[in-house]
# Entry
Amino acid sequence: MTPVEETEDQRRVRGARARQRIARRAVDIASLEGLTGLSLGRLATELELSKSGIQTLFKTKENLQLAAADAALAEFTTAVLLPAQDAPDGAARLRALTERWLAYAETPLFTGGCFWSATLPDFDSRPGPVRDVLLAQHNAWLDHLAGRLRYAVDAGEIAALDPDLAAFQLDAVFSAANTAMRLGDRDAAGKVRRTVEGILTR
Amino acid sequence: MTPVEETEDQRRVRGARARQRIARRAVDIASLEGLTGLSLGRLATELELSKSGIQTLFKTKENLQLAAADAALAEFTTAVLLPAQDAPDGAARLRALTERWLAYAETPLFTGGCFWSATLPDFDSRPGPVRDVLLAQHNAWLDHLAGRLRYAVDAGEIAALDPDLAAFQLDAVFSAANTAMRLGDRDAAGKVRRTVEGILTR
# Structure
């Protein structure tokens, strides 16, 4: 083996890194324009890679869309879900999730804001594996919110409510606020906070 | 003038009808895939018209998008806003608007469901005349909801609340339900009704 030759392991690591970098860029594009606007050719141009290289890594546009959904969830978990775990479960956890979510949408973590707000309305009428993954991720998020609400009710921290309905309402307001922020509504975060407090202090 | 020749008036009427038919089809496509996926060529194929004919009528894709927004609002007004006027203003009007809106999203009036739920998240990061029109239509809807809520509060029908915040929450839940319906949630309409009753009977 000469020094310029790569080992099988080195090649694999380089491939994984390239996949990651491409998927991350795909998340940014999807957050702006939805997942259907993605194309291997466009990513190649934007990342200054060869289209055939990207094709080798992902094979199909669908694989790229699925990789983007995975990458988005990984970053969302790191930026929103895990840090909120520092707060005790229940009302405090819900407030922490709200603040992390607002930072995620406002900073924003992805160029166009929330990944699911941009991709779910786009994919809701397109059955297939991509829709299934987006829906499963969305339902896991709703279940997570409902679980924290249920905990808060059981602990006597907040008044009795239907946790699934309240989770649906919270997520709806989060998503509407994400769009409102992009449309210049400076009170979007305030509306989210007042909605959360309305539920927690009813 | 021979019988086969059209008068200027007849030509104008025919042009207006063709524009209307094309714009209405554009609304259906946009409700499924957003307004950015529209193209003059695709509409020509689907409606079996010549692309040059459509080009003559609309000139640009942006004009077509604006015509679609106008057509969507006209149909929404006829299907949702006007029939609800039969109910007295306040809580009864809000319940009528809710039922009309649910029928609009569930039937659905446009192939892919709510026009604004499909187009606003898509256009929120694209400044320009189309976004301005969609945003103005959206704000008029929020103002309409807030006005009915304000009336209900002033008439002593419902407990005091922030009408603008409650309108934002209602619209957010409507829009989330529109997506949920497309994703197979059979309780989406139920969640909307429980949210409305939660606000009206707090």
User: Anything to note?
Assistant: The interface with chain A takes residues 32-34, 36-37, 112-113, 117-118, 120-122, 124-125, 131, 135, 138, 162, 165, 168-169, 171-173, 175-180, 182-183, 191, 194-195 of chain B (CB under 8 Å). Chain B has one domain: 8-200. The mean pLDDT of chain B is 94. Residues 8-33 of chain B form the longest helix (26 residues).
